[in-house]
Amino acid sequence: MSMLGSSYTAVAEESVSASGKGARFEAEWKTIPAMDGDYKVVQLTTSKALDNKMYLDVDPYVPSLNSVVFMSTRDDDHENLYLMSLDNGRFVQLTDSDDIDGDHANVSPETEEAFFVENRTFTRVSLRAPYEEKKIRTVSDKYDVKGIVALTSDGKTIVSSLYDEDENRSSLVTIDVRSGDLETVKKIDGKVDHVLINPVHGDTLLFHVYGENQIGLVDIGTKKKTLLTDSNDHGVHPFWQANGRDAAFAQREQGDTPEQVVTYNIRKERFFSYDIREYSNHFAMNPAQTIIEGDGGGETPYIFYYYIRPGTNKVDTVKMFKHRSSSASESVHPHAAFINDTDLIFNSDADGNGNVYLLKKK
Q: Which UniProt keywords apply (predicted)?
């Protein structure tokens, strides 16, 4: 039986080797009760360093390895990437760098690689020994790379927002992973801090303009831009649903309209919204589209599961776990992601430093 499937708790204070690429570590797990009796929470990391599952848009789970990728500063306070087995909790260091943007790394389960930016160079690293790294493309120092290294599901195409501060304009670009060829799809006025590519079809970009609170789409083929919000809206934290048919985002409370999770069917060009009565800063949706997750905020630091009532825009709210994250910095925001239809990986600094947690159905 895998350790995660049992009641056994493994905690190790020190690694079994020093540090650097290929260094191996014993499990640090401890089990915590969830508020829903059908679930439990496993704290996957317990070090005094900053650990996190990367940014909001990242699902770090690799089914073929039954493992998750996470970022940690445990190697001399530098951000590096690690791969943890969910069979036994042991993990290995994938990178050995002083300047990785680990917070915004991403994972391709299809190619069994992690992708990251180091000194404006897009790079990939294999999740199998000897954890070979390959540089993909370096971008000009006139740009700031914004958001995660977004990927198509086949791991063949990267999408990024390259922000030019002097022009206050963002270039939404695609990068071919194999050749490194870069193509500018669209230039958007302002700072685009999130851009994601349709995970199934790879033909549409979903973006958010920071400060303007606007959400939009760009058709890669035609270059057509479609705004999903207007000037009176407050759209944040876009994400794609797993089916590739629907873009989604959070719409903040306005007047008599409550907090909402809004979806947009890109083929039928049709909106649908779910009313959320309890505030959450970030949202995610499971692949089956039966549960919306929210992470609360402020005086309600909980993981909420909003169970969707079939055929309606109503939800039933269940408190799953009091994560107690301070959200003092982006690195310790919960930034939860479903790794399947029931289980959720997230961050919290409840212990005073960032750690990675897994909410798991028993």
A: Lyase
